[in-house]
Amino acid sequence: MKKIGSAFAYYLGVTMCNIKMALLTIVEYPSNILGWVISNPIQFLLGFATIKFVVEQFGGINGWSYGQLAFLYGISVLSHAFSMIFFVQGWFMGFFVIEGEFDRFLTRPLSVLYQFFFTNINVFGFTDLIPGILVFLYGCAKTGFSFTASNMVGIMALLIGATLIRGGIYILLGTTSFWTKSANDFGQFVQEIFDKTTMYPLSMYPEAMQLILTFLIPIGWVSFYPVSELMGIETAFSAGGMGVWITLGVGIVTMIAAGLVFRIGLRRYESAGN
Amino acid sequence: MITVRDLYKEYRVTERGRGLGGTLKALFKQEEKIIKAVNGLDFYVGKGEIVGFIGPNGSGKSTTIKMMTGILAPTSGEVLIDGRNITRYRKEAVRDIGVVFGQRTQLNWDLRLEESFELLRHIYRIEKKDYRETLEVMDSILGVGELLNKPVRQMSLGQRVKGDLTAAMLHSPKVLFLDEPTIGLDVGSKYALRKFIKEINAIKGTTVILTTHDLGDIQELCERLIIINGGVMMEDGNLSEIVERIAPYRTLAVEYYDAVVPEHAKAEILSVSDNVVRYKFMKADMTAAELIRDLSELYPIKDVGIEEAGIDDIIRIAYEMKK
Ligand SMILES: Nc1ncnc2c1ncn2[C@@H]1O[C@H](COP(=O)(O)OP(=O)(O)O)[C@@H](O)[C@H]1O
Ligand SMILES: [Mg+2]
Predict the structure, then answer these.
(1) CATH 3.40.50.300, chain B: domain bounds
(2) Which pTM does this prediction carry?
(3) Of A57, A186, B54, B77, which is most buried, counting CB atoms within 10 Å of its CB?
């Protein structure tokens, strides 16, 4: 226990140092900041405005009211934002494989995956948090979701789980580069799929696709199932009030699986000839 | 300190088409070409040695260094750093090593040098006091103190290499690996680098393994040479012994008063320019004194110069070896 504690303190110390360096790097390139702070939130708020338009036209989506949709959308954007902060590097794993960029991580006494994500921690990701929080709070107000202690803990478990699911999938996709030896540029593509399947009720989609996104790729657990339960909406799954915890569990399992596959992939790492 | 046992490395180069189709195909159908980069190396390096690791381009030097530093997993065989298998116990074993690749940097390009050092101080859990001390030593050897506040991207190559050398020494590693550290450096930086290697070896007893194309580096630094070609060991031993064995000859340059070209049965004429004739002879056949005596009986000699048989010949032979 003491050993785990000191290991945690150690990684925390290194992480703080990495965050400081990330902030210093931003200061070096101040012109980038404006773009991020303005364009990212606007993109998501526009997306939300589209939902409002659809709901006003049709009176709801698959039995979801406007407030419930806002809640779902908010959770989706929040978990997206956290995954952008901590795991967006996964999108560029192929580049690291091909250019031999893992070399310097391998010669240091730290987990390679940890260094990969935290050396370039993306503090800009917080700009996506802003629209996420706004829409989420709006949804809470509309649906009367109250901030009791157990609700708060549940939302935290949900967000952590959802972020881990997204991050784990980024890693799994990025890791294919160890086998293909090419830089698969899947980032935008994957984000689009995540957006389309986690911002709106999954029940909109054909049943076959729902099955795939529940069992094969656990995207349904990022937002749809746990939020349905919190909102009291019936789904094919009844999680017995444990929806958010299942999400957390699925997130942890996905991340562990991703870590194991990464380890296997790393054994195939060949650096780069000079 | 370092044990390399029966070490092999094969690279798998997948040949694939372009685009998504090619990528998918590569994922399922492996059309691989195998490159055997290292083919059964065995050696031991003791504490405090400075070893020159040389061989022609593509002979597997960098591949071997990458296996010794935990970057690449060997196809078979093993590398022990101070008794620890670096592939299996990477996180523990790399604490004992420092690594600098001449063409790459571990420094953060966008930030001041000191910021990168600060991160390393956390990563290696270096006490502030030890950190200051090491930095002072490095400053006295390399003059790195004045660079601490400089953004790395604004540095010259020489300054950046100094930064990387210091970064690699912050945690006082037992072994330092340098792959082509002098490549592209100006004379002053090269000199500083050699001084650095000699001093850390003398002061801290650091074991150093370096690859280089530079004759001066080897001449000044290495007592021991390991020469590889095609991933196979060609020579391993004392520098002067290897010279003796591979290039057991000397060159004598003789300047005459006139433009004459006297010959000698046991010496080969390498070149003639103006009144100077250069003779190559085997050390085993005769001494330089004997050659001079014989030649002076034919024509009066104005001046002579002996070129001690050549590390440069060794390097040339090593680097020109056919694959
Ligand atoms: N990452 C790599 N992928 C595939 N082949 C490589 C890679 N790195 C080196 N090689 C090949 O392995 C052989 C040895 O290369 P290397 O170890 O870099 O030699 P050296 O450092 O002595 O020049 C060469 O044929 C080289 O082309
Ligand atoms: Mg090389």
Answers:
(1) 46-62+92-243
(2) 0.86
(3) B54
